[in-house]
Amino acid sequence: MKPDIKICGLKTPEAVDRALKRGATHIGFIFFEKSPRYIEPDLAAKLAEPARGKAKIVAVVVDATNDELDEIVSLLKPDILQLHGNESPEHVLTIKALFGLPVMKVFSVRTADDLKRVEAYVGIADRFLFDAKAPKGSELPGGNGISFDWSLLGWIDESIDYMLSGGLNKNNVADALANTKARGIDVSSGVESAPGVKSVAMIDEFFDAVETADAPVMASGS
Ligand SMILES: O=C(O)c1ccccc1NCC(=O)[C@H](O)[C@H](O)COP(=O)(O)O
Predict the structure, then answer these.
(1) Which stretches are annotated as coiled coil (predicted)?
(2) Residue 78 C-alpha to ligand 1 middle, in angstroms?
(3) Which of 11, 76, 89, 184 would be 163's cystine partner, CB 3.0–4.6 Å?
(4) What is the pTM of this model?
(5) Which pLDDT band, with edges at 50, 70 and 90, does 221 fall under?
């Protein structure tokens, strides 16, 4: 089955256009002010317009207040809220009730312990995203361009719908798909020429790599 592909941290019409043309199923906008990918909600709304009905629009927030969420939701009208902070299961339920949107809950992973609380969100979060835990000194909870040990996902129940992120790029995405049960992949730094600067050429290369990974292997000698 083809994986979902989320291109995250978009800031220009050119990058949105290329992501959509190549078949992105999700496009993400970052509402975390310290990020080089931060975008004002009204600008994100304009950029997202061509994606409506073609790709899911994802609002990425980190422990956002209800007022912040209210502004983002009313301006952007996202399809999904990506909760990239320390939101508790109770808080996720409250956000879902208040905004009526599906939630993708992020787990930042370095060791097996980081996955212990997944169970508490099953039946509450609509989807999970397993991302690499930020390295010491980074101010960003995501978008750090580093991977984690994917074998840690081995115990995740097959029924759990998750996307994988963290340092994915054209060179490792095929391995990521082959070695995990991820139903979707999410990339940011791996399609950037500098922090926050998306490269349409790198977006192309990333999709090329996914398509190659997805292509059926031809029988040899016949
Ligand atoms: O990308 C950011 O700057 C960011 C900041 C704060 C919270 C989340 C952020 N990114 C969320 C994403 O979904 C990224 O795509 C994910 O972390 C993977 O990033 P990368 O390792 O750079 O591909």
Answers:
(1) none
(2) 17
(3) 184
(4) 0.95
(5) very low
Q: Where do we find the tokens 């992020």?
A: 106
Neighbour-count burial for 113-127, b at 16+ CB within 10 Å, e otherwise:
ebbeebeebeeebbb
How much is the pLDDT for 173?
98
pLDDT above 50 for 222: no
Ligand 1 contact via 62 beta carbon (within 6 Å): yes
CA angle 158/99/70 to nearest 5° reads 125
Kindly state which CATH superfamily the domain 4-214 is placed in. Answer: Aldolase class I (3.20.20.70)
End-to-end CA distance of the chain: 26
Q: How far is the CA of 1 from the centre of ligand 1 (A)?
A: 25
Identity at 154, one-letter amino acid code: G
Question: Minimal CA–CA distance to 167: which of 108, 112, 85, 208?
Answer: 108
Angle, vertex CA 38, rays to CA 4 and CA 55, nearest 5: 25
